[in-house]
C-alpha cells in the first residue's frame, strides 16, 4: 500500500485532492470516515451516476488494486465467491463479544476515526508503514436483511478485524500499538456483499481461529461502536487451519489448535458455529477464499459488543509481541 500524499497548502488552508481538510491541524490519515466518503465520491463522480446505490459506488472505489508483490503478500487466486444474491440462511448470526481488542473506540484505540479505514486490502497499516505476513486469505461476507424478508442488506458498513499469524492484535499487542493492519471497513454492494484481502489468522491459546466483524447501518455510523446492529465472529474450518499452521510463520498455532474444538470454544461452543463456520476453498500455494452468509434481524436488540469479564477476546490470551 502506498503512503498517503501530503496535503497541499492553499490560501484557505490545507487541502487534499482539492478539498479543504475537516481537521486542519491533523494529517490526511486522521480526517475521519466522513472525509473518506467524500474522497471516494469525488473520485468516482457519484453525483452524476443515476440509479447506482451508495454501497456499490463505495465498494468499487475501495476495491484492491492488483498486487505487484511476491511471496506471502500476493493476492490469492482462489477468490471465486461461493455465495450468490439468492443465498439463504437458517437464522440470525449469533451475537458475540467484540473482545478487548476491537479498535472501535469501545476499549481504547479507535481506528474507525481514521481516514483510510474504508479499504478492501487490510494487509498493510493505513499509512503503509507495516505489512502483516502470512498465507493469503480473502474473505467475503454476504449480509442478509432478515427483517426485510432475507434480501441483500445493501449499504450496511462492515468493520472486520483479526489477529496476525502469530496471534497478536494490531493497536494492542506489545510492539504493535502504532500498527493498524488487519483492520478495515467495506460497504455492502447491491448483493449485500463485502470482501477483504488479508492473511490467514493464527490460532492463539484458548480460542478457535476466527475473524471478528461488526455491522453498522451505514458508513456514517461507524465512528460510534454502540451504533452496531450486529457483532459476531466467523469461524475457520479445521482442515484449512491445519494446512496453514504447518507453514513457517505460524509457530505455536498447531499446538494451540490441538487443545481446542469448536464445541469447547467459549464463543462458538453453544452450537459448534453452526451459522458462523465459513466455507473455505483454495490451498497454501495459491491462497484461500472464505465465504459466509450472515443473517441480521434488525427487529431484535443486539446483545454483544463488550468483552466478557475476566476473559481476553472471549477466552484465550494472544501472546505479547
Order of helices and strands: EEEHHEEEEEEEHHEE
How many strand segments? 12
CATH architecture: Sandwich
Overall 3D shape:
globular
User: What does the radius of gyration come to?
Assistant: 19 Å
Query: Approximately how much helix is present in the residues?
Result: 10-25%
Largest sheet composition: 5 strands, mixed
Mean pLDDT: 82
What's the CATH class label? Mainly Beta
State the low-pLDDT regions, or none.
40-83, 306-315
Class computed from helices, strands and strand pairing:
alpha+beta
Textual characterization of the structure:
Residues 40-83 and 306-315 have low confidence and may be disordered. Strands 4, 5, 8, 11 and 12 form a 5-stranded mixed beta sheet that branches. A 4-stranded antiparallel beta sheet has the order 7-6-9-10. The chain has a 3-stranded antiparallel beta sheet with strand order 1-2-3, with no helix packed on it. A hairpin with a 5-residue loop joins β4 and β5 (151-152). The chain has helices at 33-44, 54-61, 238-245, 253-257, and strands at 8-10, 13-16, 19-20, 136-145, 151-152, 157-161, 183-187, 193-199, 210-216, 230-235, 279-283, 287-296. The protein has 4 helices and 12 strands; from the N terminus they run βββααβββββββααββ. With 321 residues, it is an alpha+beta fold. The protein has a single domain (69-296), classed as Protocatechuate 3,4-Dioxygenase, subunit A.
Amino acid at each position: 500500500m502506498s503512503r498517503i500524499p501530503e496535503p497541499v497548502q492553499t490560501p484557505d488552508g490545507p487541502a487534499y485532492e482539492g478539498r479543504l481538510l475537516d481537521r486542519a491541524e491533523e494529517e490526511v490519515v486522521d480526517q475521519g470516515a466522513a472525509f473518506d466518503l467524500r474522497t471516494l465520491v469525488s473520485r468516482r463522480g457519484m453525483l452524476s451516476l443515476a440509479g447506482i446505490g451508495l454501497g456499490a459506488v463505495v465498494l468499487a472505489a475501495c476495491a484492491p488494486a492488483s498486487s505487484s508483490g511476491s511471496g506471502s503478500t500476493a493476492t490469492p487466486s482462489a477468490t471465486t465467491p461461493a455465495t450468490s444474491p439468492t443465498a439463504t440462511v437458517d437464522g440470525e448470526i449469533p451475537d458475540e463479544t467484540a473482545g478487548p481488542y476491537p479498535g472501535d473506540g469501545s476499549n481504547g484505540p479507535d481506528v474507525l476515526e481514521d481516514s483510510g479505514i474504508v479499504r478492501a486490502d487490510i494487509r498493510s497499516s493505513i499509512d503503509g508503514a507495516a505489512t502483516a505476513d502470512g498465507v493469503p486469505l480473502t474473505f467475503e461476507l454476504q449480509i442478509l436483511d432478515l427483517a426485510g424478508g432475507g434480501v441483500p442488506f445493501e449499504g450496511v458498513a462492515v468493520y472486520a478485524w483479526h489477529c496476525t499469524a502469530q496471534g497478536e492484535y494490531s493497536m494492542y499487542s506489545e510492539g504493535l500499538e502504532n500498527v493498524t493492519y488487519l483492520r478495515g471497513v467495506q460497504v455492502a454492494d447491491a448483493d449485500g456483499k463485502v470482501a477483504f484481502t488479508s492473511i490467514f489468522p493464527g490460532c492463539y491459546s484458548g480460542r478457535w481461529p476466527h475473524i471478528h466483524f461488526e455491522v453498522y447501518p451505514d458508513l456514517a455510523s461507524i465512528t460510534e461502536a454502540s451504533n452496531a446492529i450486529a457483532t459476531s465472529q466467523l469461524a475457520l474450518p479445521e482442515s484449512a487451519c491445519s494446512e496453514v499452521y504447518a507453514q513457517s510463520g505460524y509457530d505455536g498455532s498447531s499446538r494451540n489448535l490441538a487443545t481446542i474444538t469448536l464445541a469447547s470454544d467459549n464463543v462458538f461452543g453453544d452450537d459448534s458455529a453452526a451459522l458462523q463456520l465459513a466455507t473455505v476453498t483454495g490451498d497454501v500455494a495459491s491462497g484461500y477464499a472464505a465465504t459466509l452468509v450472515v443473517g441480521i434481524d434488525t427487529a431484535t436488540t443486539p446483545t454483544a459488543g463488550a468483552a466478557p469479564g475476566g476473559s481476553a477476546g472471549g477466552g484465550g490470551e494472544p501472546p505479547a509481541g
